[in-house]
From TrEMBL:
InterPro entries: Thi_PPkinase, Thiamin_PyroPKinase_B1-bd, TPK_B1-bd_sf, TPK_catalytic, TPK_catalytic_sf
Organism: Punica granatum
Domain Thiamin pyrophosphokinase thiamin-binding per the UniProt entry, residue ranges: 98-162
Keywords: ATP-binding, Kinase, Nucleotide-binding, Transferase
Protein known as: thiamine diphosphokinase
Statement: the UniProt record of this protein carries the keyword Nucleotidyltransferase: no
Length: 176
């Protein structure tokens, strides 16, 4: 947080917030530093239950978005969800059977699966409008965008890490 304003830091200090100045480290992003801090201070027995929700991680400068997505890859054993006004993204680590529960009143139906780090030689899904069956995906080839979650459960298995993204529904204004 090397660009944070002094008055903002002072505000949080007055609330009792512990402020850690890691601005000397310019090789990692602010999000990387925050996730490292959280992981370092989470007891080992609790780490498997840890889920970090990151609001405002998408929708700004593209290089910052890519940096935030890179944090997902660097901490692939930690469940981190990047949230914007329009969608959420999280990493599905390779060689696992993932079962994604879709709360259709909040998210969907538009979704996508994007190989990250390396091409996927084999991805198989259920619960999508256009399911994949042992499908190869890579940049410069097929990536699963503009798909539709059909029900409450989507399953995914891939031989490479994938990004799962799904749209977030806008709340309806109920005022007269």
């Amino acid at each position: 947080m090397d660009s944070v304003r002094t008055d903002v830091v002072d505000f949080y200090i007055k609330l009792g917030t512990k402020v850690v100045d890691a601005s000397h480290d310019q090789d990692t992003t602010d999000l990387h530093k925050c996730v490292s801090f959280i992981c370092d201070f989470t007891p080992d027995l609790e780490k498997s239950k840890l889920c970090i929700l990151v609001a405002g991680a998408l929708g700004g400068r593209f290089d910052h978005e890519v940096g935030n997505i890179n944090v997902l890859c660097r901490f692939k054993d930690t469940r981190i969800i990047l949230i914007s006004d329009d969608c959420l993204i999280h990493l599905l680590p390779k060689a696992q059977n993932h079962e994604i529960h879709v709360l259709s009143s909040v998210v969907g139906p538009h979704c996508g699966l994007i190989p990250i780090g390396m091409p996927s030689r084999s991805t198989t899904t259920t619960g999508l409008q256009w399911d994949l069956s042992d499908t190869e995906m890579k940049f410069g080839g097929l990536v699963s965008t503009s798909n539709i979650a059909k029900g409450e459960t989507v399953t995914v298995h891939s031989d490479s890490d994938l990004l799962w993204t799904i749209s977030i529904k806008k709340s309806q204004d109920s005022s007269p």
